[in-house]
Design goal:
With about 250 residues, the chain is of the alpha+beta class. Helices cover about 45% and strands about 15% of the residues.
């Protein structure tokens, strides 16, 4: 098919506009809603692929095929293309934003990524655990109830009634920093991550180079996500998460 200069110009303009919009959305996703390592653990890859395919590929290509200066019904054609792109963009952003990591809950011996829609925020006892930072999730420490009767009730509800486990029971959320020592005690040295010397050592070395630290300054715990389980590296002193390493943490 022969493409005229007008068609190519319209295609390039459409592609530039679409790329700018998609670029802004991707920046929001990777830098604010799903900063490393949360996209790899919990990212909505399927939705993002649809968004990119429709808005960055399909839309401009339809313009390339259908655009013809002075063509009858051109405005309608372009309006339909724009409507399809906007619908895909709105749907994709809505889903990805709604499923973004809202809580990073430590429970027993691991971290789990929790979406806001997965829990009843009103059951959280601490007001500070309802305030989400602009970037990344809220850190919480999930602990079993101290009262023996309440603890037994929790275990019965979880085992016999199929209610959510500890990490998804917001009534048992506590401030993370007040419990960081308990987290540090459960963490393991990075050396225990090495199962395949050729690949795992390289990944750990890359992490250390990126964060400019020594191996003894860090520990790791499993990070459980919807897509993947990763090794979440924490600072040995502060107990705060630093980054993830794409190695099986189990």
């Amino acid at each position: 098919m022969f493409f005229t200069a007008d068609k190519i110009k319209a295609f390039l303009i459409h592609l530039t506009i679409s790329a700018s919009i998609v670029g802004i959305v991707i920046a929001l996703i990777f830098f604010y809603w799903y900063p490393s390592p949360y996209f790899e653990a919990n990212g909505a890859w399927t939705v993002l692929r649809i968004l990119v395919m429709v808005d960055l590929i399909l839309g401009p290509l339809l313009t390339l095929v259908l655009f013809k200066r002075g063509k009858k019904g051109l405005v309608m054609d372009m309006s339909i293309i724009a409507a399809i792109q906007i619908a895909a963009l709105v749907y994709g952003v809505h889903v990805i934003y709604g499923e973004r990591p809202y809580y990073l809950a430590f429970a027993v011996d691991r971290f789990e990524v929790i979406g806001k829609v997965e829990i009843d925020v009103n059951k959280i006892k601490y007001p500070e655990l309802k305030i989400k930072p602009n970037r990344g999730p809220i850190l919480v420490y999930a602990d079993f109830p101290e009262d023996k009767e309440e603890r037994n009730k929790f275990l019965f509800e979880t085992v016999m009634e199929g209610k959510p486990d500890l990490e998804r029971r917001p009534e048992y959320y506590h401030p993370y920093l007040s419990n960081k020592e308990k987290v540090i005690q459960k963490a393991k040295p990075l050396a225990e991550l090495i199962k395949n010397e050729s690949t795992d050592q390289k990944k750990i070395a890359k992490f250390l180079q990126k964060h400019k630290g020594d191996e003894e300054n860090y520990l790791f715990l499993p990070l459980v996500g919807k897509n993947n389980d990763l090794a979440l590296v924490i600072n040995k002193t502060t107990g705060l998460p630093v980054d993830g390493i794409a190695i099986d943490p189990w």
